[in-house]
Write a structure and sequence with these properties.
With 212 residues, this protein is α+β, with helices and mostly antiparallel strands. Helix content is 31%, strand content 14%.
Length: 212
Amino acid sequence: MRPAHLALSTAAVLVVPLGAGPAAAAAGPPGIPTVVTASAQLAGLTVAPESSAGSYDRDLFPHWAAVAGTCNVRETVLQRDGQDVTTNAACAAISGTWHSPYDGAVWHQASDIDIDHMVPLAEAWRSGASQWTPAKRRQFANSLADSQLWAVTDDVNQHKGDRDPSAWKPPLTSFWCTYALSWVNVKHNWQLTLQSSEKTALQEMLTTCSTR
């Protein structure tokens, strides 16, 4: 049985710079915009019904590509988002501490962590990625340049599935602001569409943000 979830303060789930020394907070994904920027990006997204749902296949988005040496994207995110992470010769994380921003849980085994695609691959497929080239879908599934990839509790990620914010929100309500900022920015960066119910949910989540 897993240990009980440990509550974190709101500050523990904010994206902060990576500092020097072993006690530094985890870096988290890059590229999360301000509320003003995200609001403008949300207003500019195209609202359209989803399409091509029946033709989705996860294999259309090759993921966990090699990054450097024996390290792939999953292991890279585990190292980026964890604290005091140690790895073996194959670059697999063998110890560390991970704070899951979605639910506030703290984990000490990498096996308890999933690397979540902020905008799920199936959601992206239904929102325009079905028209992309295989190379672009691979880039999207492995993107380290924006806030698409998050290290989170595996069970929470599985519960999220491929649902957008109109159907699923993180259990930790203090993270709703950052979640909406990240979701909007990823959809903007990759020029994906969204549904009207999704847009409404994101607008509501952005109202939880303090001034940034």
